[in-house]
């Protein structure tokens, strides 16, 4: 588990900060998707080391822009940086998976029955090919349910969003027409629907509009007690999002990182699952940053991938499989300060 090295590093950091009577501040920005977990982790890490972590939950797109502009020490994103963003970065970056989350379909129907959706149905609803809940194609997958002749209102994110990237990446992988006509991205040209800001905007509008459907992070739906659809995976099983089915989605990663696990091959995996990432520069000696800052950042990352994996609170996120966790620690140990591994220096 390598816990002895992490604990030793934390002890050294604590003694260093105590002797200097100063507080190291780490600044980050980005995804709202993992924010409840990160808020818990950052407080726990700060309490044990004295490090202060300031995090702005402004969305993956804005977080990446701030990292590229060197305004923050790290960004959080539910999407890997694009080729264009990597070119703009001006230096090598490391994508560090921290946990597994899911994107769920939530809706507003009379009585909010438990519905089942296929990739084709989700595609057709969001493309506008299916416009009413009583459509025979939806009824075919939901025998025994009394679905109303109610118009479907699609609600989607309007800003750059990692949640959108996960959802549209899934549709691009599972529904060929979506890939041809819309594609995947933190922002896309939506064929139909109402654009709103943030997960909170999706929740508010789906609750308000009868017949609406939208996509939100699993924990958001759980906290708000929203109905969620079971989605058919590649094995033909209808899977309801749970922590167990999110973890199962990552069963076949083989330890490779970073890795997209949407449209998983796992027979029991929920198909709209994904890693979420912390992104940092591989070389931390830039922009006047100090060794102490680099030490604290690397210690924070190691803590998240070691001790933090057993502290998934609130319980809306699934921990990394062991093979992925070990591969991720190796990635962290290759982060340098002035060309030398931070793991060797601190």
What does this structure look like?
By secondary structure, this protein is an alpha/beta fold. It has two domains: 3-99 and 275-345, D-Maltodextrin-Binding Protein, domain 2 (3-Layer(aba) Sandwich), CATH 3.40.190.10; 102-273, D-Maltodextrin-Binding Protein, domain 2. It is built from 14 helices and 13 strands. An eight-stranded mixed beta sheet has the order 2-1-3-11-4-8-6-7, with helices on both faces. The protein has a three-stranded mixed beta sheet with strand order 5-9-10. A hairpin with a 2-residue loop joins strand 12 (336-337) and strand 13 (340-341). It is elongated, with a radius of gyration of 21 Å. The two termini are 19 Å apart.
Which characteristics define this entry?
alpha/beta, D-Maltodextrin-Binding Protein, domain 2, 2 domains, 3-stranded mixed β-sheet
Name of the CATH architecture of the largest domain: 3-Layer(aba) Sandwich
Largest sheet: 8 strands, mixed
What is the fold-level CATH name, i.e. the topology of the largest domain?
D-Maltodextrin-Binding Protein, domain 2
Q: Give the beta-strand count.
A: 13
Mean pLDDT: 90
| The named CATH superfamily of the largest domain | Periplasmic binding protein-like II
